[in-house]
Sequence to fold (526 residues):
Amino acid sequence: MSAALIAQLVVIGFTFFMLLNSAAVLVLMERKVAAFIQQRLGPYRVGPWGTMQPLADIIKLMMKEELRPKSADAFLFYLAPILCATAAFAAFAVVPFGADTTFFGLLDEPVKLMAADVNVALLVIFAITSMGVYGIVLAGWASNSKYSLLGGLRSSAQMISYELSYGLSLAAVIMLAGSLSLREVVGAQAGYWHLFGVLPIPKWYVFLQPLGFFIFMTAGVAETNRAPFDFPEAEQELVAGYHTEYSSMTFALFFMAEYINMVTVSAVAVNLFLGGWHGPFLPEWLGWIWFLVKVFALLFFYIWMRWTLPRYRYDHLMEFGWKWLLPAATLNLLVTAGVVIWMGW
Amino acid sequence: MDALFFWIFAAVTVVASLLVVGQRNPMYSVLLLIVSFAALSGLYVLLNAPFMAVVQIIIYAGAIMVLFLFVVMLLNVRSEEDGAETRRPFDFGPGPRKFGAVLALVLAVQLIWALRRIAEAPFAPAAANAAEQTSVTAIGLRLFREYAFAFEATSVLILVAMVGAVILARRDPHAPTRKDQ
Fold:
């Protein structure tokens, strides 16, 4: 095995490991942030400042009994959480999280900090995310329970509605960058504009596409079924939605998939709109620190939103998606296309 | 290596497609169709057409099949029961079946004709510029220059289908409601 291959395998393993961990860290983060927003302390008994809480949660989940409703479709019942988790992990494979690096001169050739460099990366993410819907829909159907079925139905309707705006907001960025590869989109955001000749502004697409960023984040929240769009699991109406009948590790897989999807959406948003690993003060090879900082800022925003905004009503959600977000995304795309042609970007 | 993957994907596509027709539970039919589409997308990757592969997944496996699944779940279609439709072979029954039989015959003739033509044509894949021809830029340029008319005509057709669906699904505003009666 060549050194480059080993390095690539290390990067892939590391990505997988960090994604697994991010789910655990996010659970703790969610509970802590929620607690502080509500003037509580949150978990603080297990380990210093409650930091071992995720570990305790995992042990608890593994020790629980695995239950399956008698009338459930056994094959699909177990396939659904696997699909969900697989799609969540696979979508991150094409996301770059740092500039090419030689690991402190350890390697002759720099290695890319991403699991797989695909030249249609953005579409791959889009495709794999749309596969994740099946996990949720199947969970709802296979459980053979009213609450699960309603959760699954809502989720598929919601994802179909918001995927359109999601894709259109992506298309505007693709036109600006002239590439479908996430690495090239990030590369196009290096450097600064100088406002009035002095004030440096980073060349991030969020400044060119503020509406696009808003649409992407809104649709992203809807795609990951997070509050205020968490209808598939609206606990006051549907007990727990599509995963009502799941317990133990099958439930944990859904839970994990949701948090990993959050990480993926945030990471893609950072790469598309917030300049990826580019940032001031740090040298290029430490860019992954900027990447992490930005991703965690977005994740914090996600959690913040959950504990600030109440859930929408279902018909409002549909109306917002089709009558406001989609026209806005279309307009954004048309204006961007016009400007790109006019300026000859 | 490529040949091995080709046979795997091809076998999965064909077997899954056959199983789609054989299922009694519509839910499994939909899922097997997704498997078939996914394997088809693998074939596109082998043909050096990553864009087509991903679009195949997004549009067919992602968007269209979710709608299928949605309808199956919403209508809660029951699985076909055994013995409900025992017929003797070649007993096609009324209208639709005869029509279907004619269509199947036409399709079979077309397939035989197409396959024979492939056999006659010299087998020389243009592997050298395949990657270039299937790139996103190349597809875009072709679509909006050479095939612009077909592309726009298709969009009008889809629009017509959409309007038709809306009209069919719309409730007649003048129909007497329960309150009126």
Summary: The radius of gyration of chain B is 22 Å. The mean pLDDT of chain B is 78. DSSP finds seven helices and no strands in chain B. Chain B touches chain A at residues 27, 31, 34, 50-51, 54-55, 57-58, 61-63, 66-67, 69-70, 73-74, 136 (CB under 8 Å).
